[in-house]
Prior knowledge:
Blueprint: E1 9-12, E2 15-17, E3 20-33, E4 45-59, H1 65-76, E5 80-85, E6 91-104, E7 112-119, E8 124-125
Antiparallel strand pairs: 1-2, 1-5, 3-4, 4-7, 5-6, 6-7, 6-8
Amino acid sequence: MAEMGFNGTITIAGSAESRxxxxxxxLERDDADAxxxxxxxxxxxxxxxxxxxxxxxxxxxAGDTAYxxxxxxxxxxxxxxxxxxxxxxxxxxxxxxxxxxxRNEPLNGVVTTSCRLAxxxxxxxxx
Length: 127
């Protein structure tokens, strides 16, 4: 059976956050070019440095603990512990920095904040 996105969870600084919309978690590696003349004109790419991160929108709600922690971490530059889980119980947890904290105020909708988090080191869990 397919996994449903609305069953996923994100926990920010110990607070489960239910006001997050459309979360995307990224696992990526750089390309490390190892091409030599011996490769007969073909690139030889090795996996380079790895990174992980998450992007999401959060509905602004007065007094929301996770929202307040995200804003404070962005302003101070401090890291947060974040856990991201899907409905099959695969969880990725680690220290993350808030790299983007953008307030969105549409005329016909709720106020949200777009966040981008970048991992600090290797996460634990479903990696």
